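Practice problem. Given the sequence and the SMILES for magnesium ion, write out the predicted structure.
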Amino acid sequence: MNVAEAVGKSLAAHGVDHVFGVVGSGNFHVTNALIAAGARFVPAAHEGGAASMADGYARVSGRLAALSVHQGPGVTNALTGIVEAAKSRTPMVVLAPEATSARSNFFIDLPGIAAAIGAGFRRVAADRVAADVAEACRCAVSGAGQTVVLALPLDVQAQPAGEPWPAPGASHAGAVPRAPEIGALVAALAAARRPVFIAGRGATRAPAQARAQLTALAERCGALLAVSAAAKGLFAGDPWYLDVSGGFATPLAVELIAGADLIVAWGSTLNMWTTRHGRLISPGTTVAQVDLEASALGINRPVDIAICGELVEVARACADELARSGAVRAPGWRTPELRARIASEGRWRSVRYTDLTGAGRIDPRTLSIALDDLLPAERTVVIDSGNFMGYPSMFLNVPDAAGFCFTQAYQSIGLGLSSAIGAAVARPERLTVAAVGDGGFLMSVTELTTAARLGLPLLIVVYDDAAYGAEVHHFGPHGHALDTVTFPDTDLAAIAQGFGCAGTTVRTRDDLAAVAGWLAGGHDQPLVVDAKVVSSQPSWWLEEAFRGH
Ligand SMILES: Cc1ncc(C[n+]2csc(CCOP(=O)(O)OP(=O)(O)O)c2C)c(N)n1
Ligand SMILES: [Mg+2]
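Answer key:
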């Protein structure tokens, strides 16, 4: 067996069952070896698409994903998607062939690139292939997760794999952390009258366990439940769930979070998005943070109680300790009145607004609410970046944390469509809904060919304002010329049909009958909805975004 074959076989043995990519000479053999070992290869049109597909697949399936690209330009084409994955700590291995001679046209400084984007790096050697692959996989899946570039030097790939296969002792087990000191948090939980839990991306690594332990602890101490946008859906269906804290928070969530006397962040760093630049947390509120990584503690704001530990274990230990102490406590603010308020005011669709639909354009709120009514509850919602992004994030319900894929760690537009394709591959039994802007859509439109070829149950909703709306709303009020950020109207439904997808244009609520028909028809062909949206209003979440630049 040569090195390329051994790498593929070894990755499959570590649980890689899907590999996304574009095949060239440098990754031909390793990709085929993965397929021969049982993995499914999903070919993309462009490496940038493949990277986001692998990222979306890993996020939604909770499994280790692989990306396979050609050396040099294959790697650089994929970079933006890899950066998003790396910043989000997506467990992903990038199979990156490496031209080792600087005289090769394909040469790039691969370790330098990995270092520059915050990805892990490992180079396979012929005499220790299985151990190198095991180490890359271990780094990818352990702790908070990591995106790892696995360099496959071209001259090494063809050599015989010198090591017996599989390597003895290869294991995924990470170091067992010491039980953290939880006394201060238990005391704060026992004393609090209006606690709020905010769960973040760290809680989505093991969402079922995190939900179970956090809701049990919240019930014991009368806490309300919120999430950062990255963990939207984690507590779906719980009567004390306030949905997202931050830019997308409902007025009721804002009121209650600001009224908390204790906020506990579980796997959330309480960044500027989650706290509206700190304004959501009132002065005098005790703030606690639980995180697997010591470096994350207090990174965005000072915290009164910092605990480095696995949040499921910490929550369980806190609940045990509160039970042991036998403290009988008042329900805090878990009263029937507040429960009724959360039921009636806790979702954006119950907040009144003036419907601006007219003159051939639909109000994006009306569009989103109508879609929420129309689409099956079992859905995966994937969001691209742009001015539009709050509408689907706020108005589309999701069934659980895996039902929401928010690729915003790098704030890139153009990743949403491919992330959605990966999500749909991960959960084909659920309808996947990609919500994108027209700018982001056109940036990634080439992957419609992949969506059509795979016959995915995928609804692509384009919030089409014929502009880079984010820039229009940011610069327009200052009187700047906007020619560089507005486009002529484009018939996106016709473009979709050209790729072999279904396509329809929506200008009014009634036009959504085409979506209902597509849903009823079994939807084995993706549908692109070109929703010509009203764009007269800037979004408040966008203003938050520009404050963070
Ligand atoms: C790759 C990339 N290029 C440019 C930007 C800057 N940018 C942020 S939002 C935006 C406009 C996006 O337009 P569209 O997808 O139509 O969404 P809209 O803002 O109109 O709702 C741009 C260009 C970015 N974030 N990422
Ligand atoms: Mg736009």
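Check your answer against the key. Residues 385-388, 411-414, 437-440, 463, 465, 467-471 surround thiamine diphosphate (ligand 1) (CB under 6 Å).
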